[in-house]
Amino acid sequence: MADTQIQDRNFKRVWFITGASRGLGALMARAALQDGNAVVATGRDAAAVAARLGPAPGLLPLALDVTDARQAEQAARQALQAFGRIDVLVNNAGFGLLGAVEESEEEAVRRVFETNVFGVLNVLRAVLPAMRAQGAGHVINLSSIGGWRAAAGFGVYCATKFAIEGITEALHQELAPLGIHATVVEPGYFRTDFLDGASLAVASRIIEDYAATAGAVRAAAGALNHRQPGDPEKLALAMLQLADAPRPPLRLPLGSDTLQAIAEKQAHVAWETEAWQDLARSTDFAR
Q1: How many folded domains does the chain comprise?
Q2: Are the beta carbons of 26 and 99 closer than 8 angstroms?
Q3: Staple partner for 41: which of 29, 139, 214, 234, CB 3.0–4.6 Å?
Q4: Does some domain include residue 275?
Q5: At 218, is the secondary structure helix, strand, or coil?
Q6: What is the CATH number of the domain that holds 229?
Q7: Helix (H) or strand (E) holding 156
Q8: pLDDT tens, 138-178?
Q9: Residues 6 or more apart from 145 whose CB is under 8 A from it?
Q10: What residues are annotated to the active site?
Q11: d(CA 91, CA 46)
Q12: In angstroms, what is the C-alpha Rg of the chain?
């Protein structure tokens, strides 16, 4: 049971972060604590979360498997018992799946969707009632550079992030009249353990016809691991600036590689739309 006395402390905000036992989640939790916030830091193993972050005023480590809706509701209740409110929700928990779309087995696909999409929905349903009652709050959903453009070898993972983009865009419209912000954060490649086995599942099936596309990505992933251009410490600090913004954006791309991907896709979509606009317009009823 959470310590109900902890809510008497003068914290800047109360953050609720999923996937906080390592990687970006742990760094965001530590940065928020150092900024004077209370943090409900969740992960599958609460002891691992506590060990990673160490003792800190305002830290409440909780066990949460985001695929378990009841556990999400329990974690939200414990957070409210401890702090009385939840100001910032960061849906960070997730993992990747590397493999061509055809190579990706049904079980693996369902597992990554259960965590990356349905897990986010479970936590949203658990936390949003408190934010609606407060008439305030900020939902931050972690997407990816892969939420902007899909890439060979990461098609299924990108599909989960495309889903998060759509969910957040709708949330932005639904929650704004209630005084609640919604932002989707789109990190590029940051130097974390995302490409390690603990965060990245790899399709066991290999189809040689995809050797030059998804296969090449599979081979390159190891060489890129821990050599990514993004600084995760700076990302954690950027999240603090996002939470402090009086008018936060709907989308926040982070990393020069994401900015480049966005520019390239926008240019391609503009060119392709122009090239095919006559056929597109021809499908309307004649006026």
Answers
A1: 1
A2: no
A3: 29
A4: no
A5: helix
A6: 3.40.50.720
A7: helix 155-175
A8: 999 999 999 999 999 999 999 999 999 999 999 999 999 99
A9: 186, 187, 188, 189, 253, 255, 257, 258, 261
A10: 143, 157, 161
A11: 17
A12: 20
